[in-house]
Structure to design on (361 residues):
């Protein structure tokens, strides 16, 4: 089946939401927030995804089967921003690409790099069918060019299918220069915090496999109680398996998940099962995204249970990740492709996933 492609222009977006494309149970509608930010809502029979096609292709909100998957936050809508903290309320953003993470005092890059709020050059809706069946995709592109610096094309993509409560988040990066280019990518997925939720992962809840970050980033003001909490979790990370007391994650706590197991296809899987027995879920190929970070924060303004942030690096800033050997280099003309599958599982599928995670090797 040939693909149908509809290029989106900013003039198409108005204050009133309008459906512009439909195929079976899949549909696309466009609208513009009061803040002026353009948004695309992709729907199927189970729910919807709201994506910002011209702002880093952020995924602003996700709802399936009436369950909101998105972090609680202080932003009622996305707002124009240069750095991610100026509009920190989205479900997911693409972190990187030349630099990543929380900069140290010696780093010169913005928090999570240049990509999260980047102005995209173009965006299109793609309707087609592949080996997995029919799909709707939103594709954005940005050509980054810096005099005496890097030159690349970034093409993020969101894919939803009929009847699905899981969707794909992709990032494709091609070095347009003939000179080598640093690459640091992290799929920053901000799931909602789930009180009494239980994590299932292909790694032990041991100090070796679920490692607590002991370095303190600049945006965290440590107190004696916080430092004691870090020390306790570092010795007993199994206490983080169930969200018994989300309030203990104020300030934030960060974990590095190491030695993850995988299935026969090289995929690892992780989920948080809610008390209702349904679950939030994420899966990705460890070959492409070998580093995994966990981030919990719960205060009066924000609440997030980012139980898996797959990446090529960890989020401690360029210089620290360079020392750890976590900065990938793209050769001239080379392309890197990343894909994460994530979303919601009803109770029956959550139980199937729980068993599968226990069988990872």
């Amino acid at each position: 089946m040939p693909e149908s492609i509809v290029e989106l222009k900013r003039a198409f977006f108005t204050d009133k939401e309008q459906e512009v494309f439909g195929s079976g149970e899949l549909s696309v509608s466009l609208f513009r927030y009061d803040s002026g930010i353009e948004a695309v809502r992709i729907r199927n029979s189970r729910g919807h995804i709201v994506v910002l096609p011209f702002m880093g292709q952020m995924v602003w909100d996700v709802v399936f089967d009436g369950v909101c998957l998105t972090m609680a936050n202080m932003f009622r809508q996305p707002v124009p921003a240069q750095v991610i903290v100026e509009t920190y309320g989205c479900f997911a953003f693409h972190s990187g690409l030349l630099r990543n993470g929380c900069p140290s005092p010696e780093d010169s890059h913005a928090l999570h790099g240049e990509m999260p709020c980047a102005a995209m050059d173009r965006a299109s809706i793609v309707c087609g069918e592949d080996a997995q069946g029919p799909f709707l995709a939103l594709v954005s592109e940005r050509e980054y060019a810096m005099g005496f610096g890097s030159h690349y094309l970034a093409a993020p993509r969101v894919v939803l299918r009929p009847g699905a409560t899981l969707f794909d988040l992709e990032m494709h990066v091609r070095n347009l220069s003939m000179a080598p280019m640093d690459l640091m990518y992290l799929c920053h997925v901000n799931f909602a915090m789930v009180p009494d939720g239980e994590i299932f992962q292909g790694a032990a809840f041991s100090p070796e496999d679920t490692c607590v970050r002991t370095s303190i980033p600049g945006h965290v003001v440590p107190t004696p109680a916080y430092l004691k909490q870090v020390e306790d979790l570092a010795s007993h990370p199994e206490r983080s398996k169930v969200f018994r007391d989300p309030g203990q994650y104020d300030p934030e706590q960060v974990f590095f998940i190491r030695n993850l197991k995988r299935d026969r296809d090289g995929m690892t899987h992780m989920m948080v099962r809610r008390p209702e027995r349904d679950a939030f879920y994420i899966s990705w190929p460890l070959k492409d995204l070998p580093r995994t970070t966990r981030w919990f924060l719960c205060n009066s303004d924000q609440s997030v249970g980012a139980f898996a942030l797959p990446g090529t690096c960890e989020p401690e800033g360029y210089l620290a990740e360079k020392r750890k050997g976590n900065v990938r280099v793209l050769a001239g003309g080379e392309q890197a492709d990343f894909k994460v599958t994530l979303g919601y599982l009803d109770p029956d599928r959550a139980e199937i996933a729980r068993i599968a995670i226990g069988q990872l090797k």
Q: What stands out?
A: The first strand starts at residue 4 and ends at 8. The first helix runs from residue 224 to 235. The chain has a mean pLDDT of 95.
